[in-house]
Amino acid sequence: MKESGHTVLITGGATGIGFALAKQFHAAGNRVILVGRRAEALQQASVQLSGSPESCITAVADIADAQDRERLLREFPDINIIVNNAAVQYTKPFAEQTEAEIAHELDTNLSAPVLLTKLFLPQLLSKPDAAIINISSGLAVVPKETCALYCASKAALHSFSQVLRWQLENSSIRVFELMPPMVATPMSQGKGHAHLKISPDELAEEFWRNFKQNRFEIMGGKTKWLYWINRISATLGQRIMRKGL
Ligand SMILES: NC(=O)c1ccc[n+]([C@@H]2O[C@H](COP(=O)([O-])OP(=O)(O)OC[C@H]3O[C@@H](n4cnc5c(N)ncnc54)[C@H](OP(=O)(O)O)[C@@H]3O)[C@@H](O)[C@H]2O)c1
User: Among 7, 77, 182, 214, which residue carries the largest CB count within 10 Å?
Assistant: First the structure.
């Protein structure tokens, strides 16, 4: 992919990994559109990206809401890259998750990125150079015990990304997947293992090196180790991951 001149929609772009990716794209000369539910968080993020006001736009939208997704499509006909980054995680036993929490987690992490991708597909196909970038997780490789549906949604997003890449390989759209390890963000806050976390900026730099070289499946940081350990011994992979690294 060329490095500049894109218009990039980033869901969950105000915080954590989404914001670090926004900084990378923006610094390289791309226009970024940051999407999230909280106007204040979006505003705080956008003031940290210097440059012309047109180079960073914010859009308050709930990606799990069909009308909000359609509004994004109507408002931004220039978008040629979408980054499906927004997600939520309920860290509790499945038996204790309410039906509303189950629906919220699956809608946000799986249905919303799939439906946003579907909605933007004709627009992306009309661009000479386009990309879909899905942010899954190392937990798509081996799950952990405390968050059943989060792991399931990320495994499904991983599979979806692989198949979509095959189906679109003769089109103008490239399909990337970033599989982060543990990253120090609001999502992982208070969940321990501080010494194992990398910073969002470190992950975004690794993404950028791979993005520039058209490496489509990007295992960030320790996800690479997990992948290979699991290839050698799935029993060992599960033993390491079950209680969470
Ligand atoms: N942190 C890690 O260790 C880690 C590891 C592997 C993978 N990941 C993945 O990396 C991605 C980013 O996570 P993060 O760690 O950076 O977490 P984060 O800081 O909590 O970011 C999540 C973002 O998603 C937005 N969001 C949530 N639900 C939304 C909705 N319905 N509509 C629009 N925006 C929504 C949030 O903004 P609002 O609340 O304002 O909407 C927030 O900005 C996620 O896909 C996550 O699963 C993270």
Answer: 182
